[in-house]
Amino acid sequence: MAKHKTHYEDCDVLVVGGGMAGTGATFEARHWGRDMKIICVEKANIDRSGAVAQGLYAINCYMGMQWGENQPEDHVRYARNDLMGMVREDLGYDMARHVDSTVHMFDEWGLPMMKNEKTGRYLREGKWQIMIHGESYKPIVAEAAKKSADKIYNRIMITHLLMDESQENRIGGAVGFNMRTGDFHVFRAKTVIVAAGGASHIFKPRAVGEGMGRTWYAPWSNGSAYALPIAVGAKMTQMENRIVLCRFKDGYGPVGAYFLHLKTYTQNANGENYEKKWYDQTKELVGDYIDHHPTPTCLRNHAFIQETMAGGGPIHMVTTEAFQDPHLETVGWENFLGMTVGQAVVWASQNIDPKYTNPELTTSEPYVMGSHATCSGAWVSGPEDLSPPEYFWGYNRMLTIDGLFGAGDTVGGSAHKFSSGSFTEGRLAAKAAVKYINDQKAEDIKVTDKQCEDFKEAIFKPLETYQVAQNEITGGTVSPSYISPIQGLQRLQRIMDEYVGGIATNYMTNGNMLKRGLELLAWLEEDLEKVGAEDLHQLMRAWELKHRALTSQCVTEHTMFREETRWPGYYYRGDHMKLDDDNWHCLTVSRRDPKTGKFSLEKVPVYHIVDENEKKKAS
Ligand SMILES: Cc1cc2nc3c(=O)[nH]c(=O)nc-3n(C[C@H](O)[C@H](O)[C@H](O)COP(=O)(O)OP(=O)(O)OC[C@H]3O[C@@H](n4cnc5c(N)ncnc54)[C@H](O)[C@@H]3O)c2cc1C
Fold first, then answer.
1. CA 213 – CA 541 distance, rounded (Å)
2. Is the pLDDT of residue 461 over 90?
């Protein structure tokens, strides 16, 4: 252990992850905490990290309140409808009422925004989306964070949260290691804001072998946002609400601009509108939800999956009409060049010119995240002026651990935040974290050297395991005494794929399969004690895997608990195929006991605050 130097840093606000939410948190923490010490720790480099690393072509969440385009209430209704009723409306409203101010700052900071030539307003792609030339999006928000923080640590992966030893259930900081130097870093902090993104690669991806890494969601998002809080006993919500995306095949190019701006549409292999064909069958499963407008994302997926299973595939996006217009053709290509270059490359390699050939679509493997058309994540307090008692415990976006906050993909129950909403939520969390410190809630935190040293030993153990076990390697990679991170990852992905509703079963699972999945995950957890790492990069892979495995356990427990099929098209409980509003119009909340590793689950009421308030006003 002596060969891994230890560095100590004491601070007020520690931000874990410098993506959209993390940069927002770092920026806002400085605004409210002028004299505070603010540190941001990032696994990659904040200039090009997180899901927005390559850039985006649209900001997907902008109300346009100054022009009366949308109000926060409208966004709450929209997100509630898309998530089949299951959202935290207090969180959604709170984000929506602040998101425009965030976007206006991006504009001031130099993000190139497209403007509507006639009105001078931001150019709309859809009701909520505005179009940008977004290749520089991430470096711009990173600069704001760099100017605000006392220090940004790049290339440090946070592996564990530290707990206060003088007061129960209070945060004390975080530890991790530098993936370039191998040094051990201890951050003792009064508050921690976890903003570490969502989770890809917990379900087996469609692209394996040479294509591995080509996923829709960022392949480096490994569920730390969930595993870090779960490990210390924070409550989580809606972890069963994994998302499946309908995207261009093989390159996962986004379809939003195509549907909304280019007005392209989908059809089956016979040129038919297949969505209509599945209306009656879907109505049988979910009742009136199929009549809602816009059709919830999961139900559109459902029609796609059913049509493919019935032999109507491949499903195509009809681009050949829109691409005859040279302007739309340019927009179509630019959409990928600024955001998903890989899709353009895939089309070139497959001889597809969308002007003459309608490209294929596919449904992705499931991902776990809290900021897109899905809302898995931590159970957090809402704002004091909006939240009912069950949803409020003192500080906005604080988890059920004192002093531990979350934002972006970390936070559950608040879907459709996207990049701008995640940055906004980071700002909200930071403001509350500073208040928590100013309210003297973080006095006399005690983190002993023993707690840190124990983590140090655990963190570097995979290097030791490899060093000893490498003597037994045969055939290049096979050893009886350790498993490599890639072997462990593939085992995890198969368990999730085959038992928890991945692509192998067309997203189908049931109570018996989930029970078996949990058994296999428990054995995997045991075997991960023997994961070996031959270098620091593999050490990162080992910890990414451990975080993915813990996240997967939580997803599986939640999927088992909710005995209905709430989101057909995201997953199916074959033993409870229908949506069941009588018993399951509620949020699911879990807690893993850090001592025993056992999960307990409960139902929590879902409050429809927006329309309730309106009803009260009317009466
Ligand atoms: C393919 C794709 C397309 C999208 N398209 C759009 C779009 O067009 N418009 C739009 O508005 N939004 C879009 N989004 C959504 C948007 O990107 C996310 O909502 C947003 O990035 C979430 O912010 P976040 O901070 O939670 O996560 P991220 O931005 O992903 O940031 C998480 C950060 O945490 C770091 N990290 C992870 N683990 C650790 C650890 N253990 N220690 C330290 N650091 C860690 C990561 O490196 C990363 O920098 C898209 C997302 C994806 C995946």
1. 13
2. yes
Asked if residues 130 and 147 have their Cβ atoms less than 8 Å apart, the reply is: no
Residue from 42, 341, 419, 459 whose mutation best tests the ligand 1 pocket (most atoms within 8 A of CB): 419
**282: phi then psi, degrees, rounded to nearest 5:** -70, -40
Burial (Cβ within 10 Å: 0-12, 13-18, ≥19) of residue 618: exposed
Treating both helix axes as pointing N-terminal to C-terminal, what angle do 536-561 and 449-469 enclose, rounded to 10 degrees?
Answer: 110
Residue 334 pLDDT > 80, yes or no? yes
Radius of gyration, alpha carbons of the chain: 23
- CA 28 from centre of chain: 21
pLDDT at position 212 is 80
Does the beta carbon of 196 sit less than 6 angstroms from any atom of ligand 1? yes
Q: What does the alpha-carbon distance between residue 172 and residue 187 come to, in Å, rounded to a whole number?
A: 9
Token pair 């945060």 is found at: 171
| CA atoms of 99 and 417, how far apart (whole Å) | 9
Tell whether the model's pLDDT for residue 245 goes beyond 60: yes
Pocket of ligand 1 contains residue 59 by CB under 6 Å: yes
Closest ligand 1 atom to the C-alpha of 44? 47
**Gap between the Cα atoms of 212 and 229, Å rounded:** 28
- pTM greater than 0.85 (yes/no): yes
- The torsion defined by the Cα of 327, 330, 334 and 336, in degrees rounded to 10, comes to 120
C-alpha 475 to ligand 1 mean position (Å)? 38
DSSP, collapsed to helix, strand or coil, labels residue 418 as helix
**550-578 pLDDT tens trace:** 999 999 999 999 999 999 999 999 999 99
Q: Output the six-digit token pair for 216.
A: 């829709």
Cβ atoms 194, 207 nearer than 8 A: no
Alpha-carbon distance values, 191 to 302, 370, 437, 504 (Å): 42, 21, 8, 42
DSSP3 helix / strand / coil % (the chain, rounded to 5): 40, 20, 40
Over residues 173-182, the pLDDT tens digits come to 999 999 999 9
Please say if the pLDDT value at position 598 is more than 70: yes
Instruction: For residue 384, give Cα distances in angstroms to 395, 434, 607.
Output: 8, 16, 15
Distances (CA, A) of 572 to 304, 346, 516, 569, 578: 14, 31, 17, 7, 9
The answer, yes or no, to whether any atom of ligand 1 lies below 6 A from the CB of 177, is: no
348: three-class secondary structure by DSSP: helix
Over residues 8-32, the mean pLDDT reads 98
Backbone angles phi, psi at 253, to 5 degrees: -60, 140
**Nearest-5° angle of CA 399, CA 492, CA 472?**
120
Distance CA 60, CA 76 (A): 15
Cα dihedral sign, 425-427-433-436: negative
| 512 alpha carbon – ligand 1 mean position (Å) | 34
Q: What is the mean pLDDT of the chain?
A: 95
Contacts 24+ apart (CB under 8 A), 320-328: 320/354, 320/355, 320/356, 320/357, 320/358, 321/264, 322/258, 322/262, 322/263, 322/264, 323/354, 323/355, 324/355, 328/261, 328/262
Q: Quick one: how far is CA 151 from the chain centroid?
A: 25
Cα 601 to chain centroid distance, Å, stands at 21
